[in-house]
Structures are given as C-alpha cells and as structure tokens.
Amino acid sequence: GIMQILQTEKVNHYPMLRNIEATYNKDEDIIIKNPVELRRKLEKMKEDGIENLKVFADFDFTLTRRRFGGENADNSFKTIENPKLIGKEFEQGCDVSRAKFGPIEADIRISKEEKQKSMLEWWETTQQLIVKTQISRSKISHAVSESHLYFRSGISKLLSILKEFNQKLYVVSAGIREVVKESFYMLQKQKRTGYRKAIELCMTPEIYDENNVIVGFKKPTIITTNKHLFVSHEKYPEITQGKNGIVMGDLIEDLQIVKDLRLGQVISIGFYNYTDETQGKSIKAYLDAFDIVITNDGNMEPVSYTHL
To answer: How far apart are CA 109 and CA 280, in angstroms?
Structure first.
C-alpha cells in the first residue's frame, strides 16, 4: 500500500501550505450525448452493486486541474520543474521537449504508431534528464509542496466512498510516480484520513540509490498510448471478468486503459479542458468517445454523485 511505502522510506516531507484539492468550479458543464444509453448502464451498475465496480483514471489533468486561480496548473512533470530546487537546466530541457512533443500528444489526427514513437522518445528524454539532474525524494516532496498542482474538487469524496466499500482507484498514468504518490500523501494529510487502501498506482516506478536519489526507471515505460499493458486480470486478480468499470481521462487515448479487460458495463468520463478546438481537440470527438464529457476544467463530484 501507499502508506507502507511511505513509512519505510526516509523522506523529508514538506508541509503543504495551501489546499491541494481545488475549490469547486461552478463553471463546469456536463454534456451527455446519449442519456438513454447512460441511464441503461447506470441502472445495470446499480443493480450489480458497488462491490462489482472498478474505477480507473489517468492522473495529470484528469484527477488534477489544468488551470486554477486564473493560471495554468502543474502536471506531475511541471511540478518538479522548479528552478530554485532542481536547477534551471532541467526546466529548460523540459521546455524544449514539451514544445516538440506536447502538440503531438494532444493531436487526435496523428496515427497511433507515430504518436507512440514520439511519446516514448519524450518520456525517455525526460527520464535521462531526471537521472542527470540527480533528483531526490525529499526534493520531490519539497517541489510538490511549492507547486501549482491541484486535485479537482470532489477527489477526497470519491476516495472516501471507494475506501468505505473496500474499492480502489486505479491510477494509470504516464506521469512521475513519486510526484503522484507525494500528492496523494499531502491530500490525505490535509484531510486527516488514510486513503492508502483506496489507491493503486499503475505507473513506471523510479529506481533509487541508497541516498534516495533517482538513478533510473524500471521498464517497460508507460506512455499515453500503451496504458492497457499496465492493467490486466493477471496483474490485478481482484479485477475479475465481468466487473463493471468507470474510466476517466483527459485524452481520448485514456479509454485504452480498459481495452484488454473483459468488463461488463463501462462508463467513460472525459475531461475536456480546452477553450478552443485547435490541434484537432474537437469537442465532437470527445462526445463521440465518452459517455459523459465534463467541460471547462470541471469537478470530480459528478463521478461520485452519478455513479457511486
């Protein structure tokens, strides 16, 4: 569990001086393209009960906000781009990579093969930068405490419900695992509760030396386009065949998370965080792909209220 890992490590956890869970965003819109079909799925899920439900989510800009307080929020990568803590060189290297690969990740017109190749190159370039920069666990904790990473309003409610019913949130993310782990640690500290049993991180783990400095990353590397390889019935025997699922993402590719699972009913929730439709990020494509689309960088509340 997440807490056991945290207890066995000598991490200097930094105090979080702001709320890591964002305030409620009243500007959200919830768009349901096919209400009849959604109602059918919901009724079947209700009938089967919450013990037969599994919840999967991407992390960056799905569980977290894209913007908050009138400025861009941080994802797990941007969180450690703190020049004061990590140095300017790392931030500059990340900026170059983001300018090159960011538009490719978000463009739905690019073929899967081409995207996969670019995403792998992006991740591996970043991994090399992280290793070269010699980033420690304590530095990551410090960076999270100073960052602009915000969970969407309603995340703690969702985790509380899952915990109550002995269920988990499977976080399937190509982000930085230690940042994600530390963010959840700070959230549970602020809420004065333990979510450890309700969180499963399906992510690429870092490799540390005896001084808790990152010296590498385990293989295989999880990227935007291969998430399904990290969630299987074999790896997680509790995800038995025929269980129902909720899958959340901010990219259409996030739906691939459950591709290889033999699930019953699946409700998909897409976070459409854009204000324009450039780079092929069309709202129509999201409405065609997801059962529910939450626009304007909305909240997690609909996830708890509608389905659990």
So the answer is: 6
Q: Are 222 and 203 in contact (CB under 8 A)?
A: yes
Question: Alpha-carbon distance 150 to 274, whole Å?
Answer: 17
Q: What is the pLDDT of residues 55-96, one digit of tens each?
A: 999 999 999 999 999 999 999 999 999 999 999 999 999 999
For 118-169, what is each residue's pLDDT tens digit? 999 999 999 999 999 999 999 999 999 999 999 999 999 999 999 999 999 9
3-state secondary structure of 63: coil
* Dihedral angle computed from the Cα positions of residues 293, 223, 57 and 186, in that order, rounded to the nearest 10 degrees: -120
| C-alpha dihedral sign at 164, 168, 174, 175 | positive
Which class for 205: exposed (0-12), middle (13-18), buried (19 or more C-beta within 10 A)? middle
Tell me the one-letter amino acid at 214.
I
Asked if 294 and 93 count as a contact pair (C-beta separation under 8 A), the reply is no
